[in-house]
Design brief:
InterPro entries: Aldolase_TIM, BKACE. The protein is α/β, with parallel strands linked by helices. It contains 9 helices and 15 strands.
């Protein structure tokens, strides 16, 4: 019988949300760690982490990544909180080596796996080469890190099946549908109706919508029995039109929506069981 527990992921800052857009986006190591604690307290069982440099810009520099993640772990431990860390592997302007380097050092339970390239927001190439995807899939299996397959466009479903057949991904797949990015699939019911039947057997799935599609995608996901909802300032900066949100507020709202839909909010231990994760540290 399908579990009724709902996994809430908090995507804290992403690569692009800036202080000029919202003062609430965490960019310093201390802000990221504090938001991780606040979101775990609010009900998030998964924390999705990108890292910024001293100027607040996206970075994949290994030493910085390790510093931030270790600080997050320390602050969660101080607060006696348990959360699954899901570290990004995205970063088109960085080398493939740098995009992978932090993973075997930090040994997170999850990492992002973007199964294809696209013209992101019709402004730049969101690059994920076949060689990179093979390397990342191999590394995930070696280090027992669960890939979160972030699906932005329909063709990525076929790519996941391809890498599964070739042995670079293993069952069960966890899909993270990221809808509403210009250049990808829109955040509507038609997109979800296309994607869901193409999931591989035994898979789990979560959903988020970008910007104005954020709340509609949460409601669509709950209506279709999703395993998880992703929220956070990476994807959307508003609680409602004209009202800026904090990450914790977005987590709290997702929990309330889940409860209204008859779902129990998953703890980190619940999420580990649902996703089949290996806890390393």
């Amino acid at each position: 019988m399908k579990s009724k527990k709902l996994i809430i992921t908090a995507a804290l800052c992403g690569a692009g949300t800036m202080k000029s857009q919202t003062p609430y986006v965490p960019v310093t190591p201390e802000e990221i760690a504090a938001d991780a604690v606040a979101c775990a307290k609010a009900g998030a069982s998964v924390i999705h982490i990108h890292v910024r440099d001293d100027e607040g810009k996206n970075t994949m520099e290994t030493e910085r990544f390790c510093y931030v993640v270790n600080l997050v772990r320390e602050e969660l431990a101080k607060a006696n909180l348990d959360a699954i860390l899901n570290l990004t592997s995205s970063g088109s302007k960085f080398s493939e080596d740098m995009r992978l380097a932090h993973l075997p050092i930090l040994k997170p339970e999850m990492c992002s796996y973007d199964p294809g390239s696209m013209n992101w927001a019709n402004s730049y190439i969101f690059a994920n080469s076949p060689s990179f995807l093979e390397r990342l899939g191999t590394l995930c299996q070696k280090e027992a890190i669960k890939p979160e397959c972030e699906v932005f466009d329909g063709g990525m479903m076929g790519n996941i099946e391809y890498y599964m057949k070739k042995g670079f991904l293993s069952s069960p797949i966890h899909y993270q549908f990221v809808l509403g990015v210009s250049g990808g699939m829109p955040g509507n019911a038609d997109s979800l109706a296309y994607l869901l039947p193409k999931m591989l057997p035994g898979s789990t799935w979560s959903i988020t919508g970008i910007g104005k599609d954020h709340l509609p995608c949460m409601l669509l996901g709950l209506a279709e029995g999703c395993d998880g909802l992703r929220v956070g300032l990476e994807d959307n900066i508003f609680l409602e039109k004209g009202v800026l949100a904090t990450n914790a507020q977005l987590v709290e709202r997702a929990c309330k929506l889940g409860e209204l839909a008859g779902r129990t909010i998953a703890t980190a231990a619940d999420a580990r069981e649902l996703l089949g994760l290996t806890k390393h540290v």
